[in-house]
Amino acid sequence: MSLSPQWLDELRARTLLSGVIGKTTKLQRAGREWKACCPFHNEKTPSFTVNDDKGFYHCFGCGAHGDAIRWMTDHQGLPFIDAVKELAQAAGLDVPAQDPRSREQAERASTLHDVMAQTEAWYVEQLGRAEGAGARAYLQKRGISATQARSFRIGLAPDSRTALRSALKAVGDEKLVECGLLIRPEEANREPYDRFRGRLMIPIRDARGRTIAFGGRILGDGEPKYLNSPETVLFDKGRTLFNLDRAAPASRKAGRVIVVEGYMDVIALAGVGIDEAVAPLGTALTEGQLERLWRLDPAPILCFDGDTAGQKAAVRAIGRALPFLAPGRTLRFLTLPPGQDPDDLVRAGGAPAIEALLEAPEPLVERLWRHEQAALPLDTPEARAGLKQRLAEHARAIADRDVSYAYASDFRQRADALFAPPRREWQPRAAGRPAKPGDRTGDRPGDRRGAWPAPRPVSDAARAMSRSGIDPATARALLAGLLRVPAAIAEHVEALSHLVFADPALDQLRSALVEAAWRGTVLEGEALTTILLRVGAIDLLQKRGRANGLAFSFQRGDADLERARRDLGEVIDVMVKRSELDARIAEATARLGDATNDGAWEEQQHLQRERQETDRRLSELRELAGDADI
Averaged over 114-124, what is the pLDDT? Predict the structure, then answer.
């Protein structure tokens, strides 16, 4: 099918946008436009406008914007071609002819939709017959009313190998096999037989509400407990979500979408008025399913069972989602009590039980941190380094640069706080107790007296950094590393923008590299040479390959690039933290003269210990670079 821009413009021109939107959203006339409360987010004051003359809608609250086709895809959940066909039919336009193969596929799909509709009706009929008494008793036991069963069109597949095949004999075996309803044996002399037998049948629908597959729940003993239709012309398991057709409009009203593990969880939530729930189809969430969820809500809530399998499913979902995170696009998590699923929770406490948990879902970053922190014991330096490495790998998996940096920074702060040495509380020396070595005599921190040990001397390099920025030797090493691994400039551009080099020429080069990275310049080859020439620093580029024997791994010409990139990032982080500590120490020191501020000396001592730890880590990076076999 070929849809030219001219034909699409004609379709838009023939479509009254307010008429399309007004079918599902209450519009009020406002001069030459229409206004309404936005159907894409909750609001009390209308900020959603529809302009028929210009042919677009716009929300000044959430930024939703588009034409009639965009409305049908984003609000109604239709695929693009289905949206075009529906609008064209209403506008009296003929859709351009399809090529023979596409036309054949469309005709076949249309026929198969009819077959699935007939099958669904037959299953529903079987549930109401005398043979369906056991299935109806099972539904009652699960707390699913007859009204709910009718709403979800739940049916019954009799425990027979030929019941459906015989009932839909007029349809023919070929179409029933193509729909995944019959199984054709490999042996040529054997007849096809019903795929679903002795199961409660739950229809799976597409975004338009058409039945495209079934999920069957066994009523007696046996495996598998749940059996889904195979993938067919109609059914793409990786892009389908159970209950999407009902949850899409409900999610816009509720301002959220909830992902649960199974059909019964969705049905249980709908029974207490929570209609915005969907479920994957027996597999981990796929990239296609995540994309559909994000079209409904920028932060879907994943509500998995509290058992081990449920928590593993949550972690798998995080792994799939990380590369696609972006500003305003994330996941949230709801962890249920151990041994309970949403169905159990609803039957025990109704809607309030689940709503209480939904009020405070856990952010993705928190869920991932908890998982990695609990994955292995952290009682050795190697284990703690392993935690930091795993977290850094998760941050690097995020394609969006800003979000990736934000995650890396958050993980570093959490790890620093977790592994920081315990802070000693100041204790005044008891009256009459003789002083011990290291004591500062006196009664209160404001007088610099108490049980704090004297700080160790600060290195000359640290003093230079504190007074006027990073010392030239360290700055040259850092710049040489950036020139050798230029990809790290964009990766750490925000951190680099906060640093100050004591040498003005070196600082000018740092600023030029940061500025180019912010503009999106690919810093390699000619672009990098141009920057060096402009600031008069071409000699750094020429000499960086001869930096063997210097302090850091990223200065060595024979160093592994991945190791160099990793160490370079850590040195940058240490530098940023060091500059922040210097500023905080200066503030605490300034407050020492205030006799009413007893905590200033405590704070100063604590910060100085943190700074010593930072200097120690910088020294370690130098020593490791000299000792490591890289």
Answer: 96
Determine the residue type at 502.
A
What is the span of the domain harbouring residue 63?
5-91
Q: Is residue 88's pLDDT more than 70?
A: yes
Q: Are 156 and 126 in contact (CB under 8 A)?
A: yes
Domain boundary among 57, 91, 125: 91
Q: Which single residue is written with the structure tokens 């020294």?
A: 619
Amino acid (1-letter code) at residue 382:
E
Short-list 345, 273, 274, CA closest to 306 = 345
Are 305 and 261 in contact by the 8 Å Cβ rule? The answer is yes
The pLDDT value recorded for residue 169 is 94
Q: Name the strand (E) or helix (H) holding 332.
A: strand 332-335
- Containing 434, the helix (H) or strand (E) segment is none
Number of domains comprising the chain: 4
Mean pLDDT of 90-112: 71
| DSSP type of residue 323 | G
Q: Does the pLDDT value for residue 373 go beyond 80?
A: yes
Same domain, 288 and 231: no
Pairing type for strands 301-304 and 258-259 reads parallel
Asked if 235 and 180 touch (Cβ cutoff 8 Å), the reply is yes
What pLDDT, on the 0 to 100 scale, is given for residue 572? 85
pLDDT (average), residues 436-443: 42
Question: Measuring CA to CA, how many Å separate 183 from each of 119, 177, 200, 221?
Answer: 15, 6, 18, 22
The domain that contains 176 carries what CATH number? 3.90.980.10
Output the domain CATH number for residue 318. 3.40.1360.10
pLDDT at residue 630 greater than cutoff 50: no
Instruction: State the pLDDT confidence band at 52, using cuts at 50, 70 and 90.
Output: confident
Q: C-alpha distances in angstroms, 21 versus 24, 28, 70, 548?
A: 6, 12, 11, 68
Instruction: Verify that 127 and 75 share a domain, yes or no.
Output: no
Classify the C-alpha dihedral 225-230-234-235 as positive or negative.
positive
